[in-house]
Amino acid sequence: MDEELEPVGKLISQLYRQNQKTLAKELLPYGIGGGGQYNFLKLVLIRPGITQDQMTNEAKYDKATTARAVKHLEEAGYIERRPDPKDRRSSLLYPTAKALEFAPLLQSILTEISRSLTAGLTQEETNLLAALLRKISSPPPNH
């Protein structure tokens, strides 16, 4: 009798939770919490002047999660809001000097966590895993 395979979704969920716990522990000393706050900070660093709506779409989080993360990052001194000259109802988000100074450390933390996740894999296996995860996380093309 064939052994039943564990559902892929369950494995991904377990890996996600393990990764989130590690990230929370590593980023806590810098005032960055859960809820993907580091993702939002990275977006602001990569795309200064991004709006919350753009962040929601790019990070694939809901609006409430984006709003909470932006509020926290603003209160922690990592991002600042500036009025959007094209739309008074909207704000543009920019990294602060604190965020710019922290960016290299954030990247090294994320890189190290990623390395630890794939420590038992060869480079070829790591590349294949990333390619497969990208493939299953992309929405199917419209027919």
UniProtKB/TrEMBL annotation:
Keywords: DNA-binding, Transcription, Transcription regulation
Domain HTH marR-type per the UniProt entry, residue ranges: 5-138
Gene Ontology MF term list: DNA binding; DNA-binding transcription factor activity
Protein name: MarR family transcriptional regulator
SUPFAM superfamilies found in the cross-reference section: Winged helix' DNA-binding domain
Top-level taxon in the UniProt lineage: Bacteria
InterPro entries reported for this sequence: HTH_MarR-typ, Tscrpt_reg_MarR-type_CS, WH-like_DNA-bd_sf, WH_DNA-bd_sf
